[in-house]
Specification:
257 residues; 23% strand; globular; alpha+beta
Length: 257
């Protein structure tokens, strides 16, 4: 039996979903999160400066659950939904229960006391509790490992990843209005199906509930199957729209806290 690891870490809520392996630029100006960054800077530079990024629930963000995806993303009932500023009597209700640990490689304090942060998603975690009484939010979390594939499904994720990459290139071409040769090639992308599943989930233009479902998928194959369906649908929609600006696979907007 595998041992589940738990930890208490600083909690950074966003109106966005962070995936393992993805870079997260942050513009930190609210005092609660300035305090968090000041505390992280006290740690040894050789040690990871870790915090948990979690998506904020929104009553308007209610999306149907796709086949094979966990039905844990729907917003909390109105009676349980906490105010965005005060977090309510039970602050965990404000957030989705699955988030991603971020490792802050760079934390730079500006002259005005705000911070410029560059972090990278590392591992998925499940929130067990949230504490809001301190200078910043903290959460007790447990590691959320992906379920290993069965023996007869060992090659399924690899085949799905190839299909997702083909569908993503078609989607990206339609989105960017670019020529095929200007798109990412196989040499530019990783071979690991799990890494591909997270990269595509982050790079595809989707709403927060859909991205949250992809983050929470129990295994890589389930995530890739859902992405294949989503990419085909999105590409069909874009085909009937005017050309849109290109979306860079490896870049993300800077998120203000």
């Amino acid at each position: 039996m595998s041992v589940v690891t738990t930890a208490r870490l600083p909690l950074f809520p966003l109106n966005a979903v962070l995936f393992p392996g993805l870079v997260l630029p942050l513009n930190v100006f609210e005092e609660r999160y300035r305090a968090m960054m000041r505390e992280l800077l006290k740690s040894d530079e050789e040690e990871p400066r870790r915090f948990v990024v979690v998506a904020i629930r929104d009553g308007r963000e209610i999306a149907p659950t796709a086949t094979g995806m966990p039905d844990t993303v729907a917003a909390a009932p109105p009676a349980e939904r906490a105010p965005a500023d005060g977090f309510g009597p039970d602050p965990i209700q404000t957030f989705h229960r699955v988030g991603c640990v971020a490792d802050a490689a760079t934390i730079r304090e500006r002259a005005d006391g705000s911070f410029e942060v560059l972090a990278t998603g590392t591992t998925r975690v499940r929130l067990l509790s949230v504490e809001a009484s301190g200078p910043y939010l903290t959460a007790e979390v447990e590691d959320l490992a992906e379920e290993p594939p069965a023996e007869d499904e060992a090659d399924e994720a690899g085949a799905l990843a190839e299909g997702v990459l083909r569908a993503f290139r078609s989607y990206q071409k339609r989105l960017a209005g670019a020529s095929e040769r200007s798109l990412a090639t196989g040499a530019d992308l990783p071979d690991d199906p799990s890494v591909i599943s997270y990269l595509v989930a982050a790079a595809t233009v989707l709403d927060v509930p859909t991205k949250q479902r992809l983050l929470q998928a129990p295994d890589t194959a389930t995530r890739l199957r859902e992405e294949l369906t989503l990419l085909r649908k999105e590409t069909a929609v874009i085909r009937h729209l005017p050309s849109l600006p290109a979306t860079d696979l490896t870049r993300a907007p800077t998120h203000p806290n």
